[in-house]
Amino acid sequence: MLGKDHRRNRVANAYYSLFMAVGNVLGYATGAYSGWYKIIPFTITSACNINCANLKAAFFLDIIFILITTYVSISAVHELPLNSNHGTHCAEGMPEQSSHVEEAFLWELFGTFRYLPGTIWIILCVTALTWIGWFPFLLFDTDWMGREIYGGEPNEGQNYSIGVRMGALGLMLNSVVLGITSVFMEKLCRKWGAGFAWGLSSILMSLCFISMLIITAMVNNMNLGDSLPPDSIVIAALIVFAILGIPLAITYSVPYALISARIEALGLGQGLSMGVLNLAIVIPQVVVSIGSGPWDQLFGGGNSPAIAVGAASAFAGGLIAILAIPRTRVEKSRIHQ
């Protein structure tokens, strides 16, 4: 919807990443605040303590904002309905050729793989490796902060809940950096090439995950017991969270722009290209969601084994992106056509 012209798609995705960052900052700020039970007092009950009440209040806020955004989406966007008798119309009202309207979309989606050239397969491979790297972090980021940095356990003392709130603060900083990076995304990709920038960001992501493993090892060697970690450890963890906003901004933008620009020549349509790319995201998500728990238990529990796999996967994806994706630069005059 943002970038129908593939030449503007990368810019559109950068703006999308920017406004996603704004929403993330507000959302993570909600999770970092510990006084919602005072603002919405009916959330705390005999069966729901302060931590439960804060979470419940956040859910109430979620419901309110979902209702608002749903109303805005329905009322503000005026789309022409599909009409199988008169063909399919695009947003500008120009008719497009549409055949086999009744064809199953999933069959069409998987049938697309037969026509994909080698460059697109490389992009899909790098996307899958990148998201194998991201999902352990996205699944366990606040749990890592509460369990391995603050040494707490859920429903046992305050260390874990303090760590989770500090993790939410780290994610808020992550979103701030994500938004700043999105502003400079187009200039960065135009100077270095989108594939090269993507590869460097994946290697940076891998180094951040390795830093998380080092911080975990340092905390384990301190034998803190029930004491809170020193400020230097907490600050280091927050810095890592913040730096990860740079590769996250590129992950949200560059793969979609690359696949969009290269799929146009095949005449398969932008929507179908996004569907193909999303398969390279969803399948790794399923693999990580199912396998990360048993994998962590195999090495004694904790989140470090899954994060180590994420670091290795991100590094491999970065090398492939740098070496295998052609370093094409988009000229400024083309962008403003």
- Measured between the Cα atoms of the first and last residue, the distance is 19 Å
Helix content: over 70%
Q: Fill in the CATH topology of the domain at 108-328.
A: Growth Hormone, Chain: A
Number of helices: 13
Major sheet summary line: 2 strands, antiparallel
CA radius of gyration is 22 Å
- What is the typical, i.e. mean, pLDDT? 79
Largest sheet, spatial ordering of strands:
1-2
- SSE pattern, N- to C-terminal: HHHEEHHHHHHHHHH
CATH homologous superfamily identity of the domain at 108-328: MFS general substrate transporter like domains
Are there runs of 5+ residues with pLDDT below 50, and where? 84-104, 330-337
Identify the CATH architecture of the domain at 108-328. Up-down Bundle
Strand content: under 5%
What is the top-level CATH class of the domain at 108-328? Mainly Alpha
Which outline best applies?
Answer: globular
Q: Indicate the structural class.
A: mainly alpha
Tally of DSSP β-strands: 2
Transmembrane segments: 12-37, 57-77, 120-140, 196-220, 232-259, 271-293, 305-325
Protein name: Sucrose transporter 4
Membrane topology: Multi-pass membrane protein
Main location: membrane
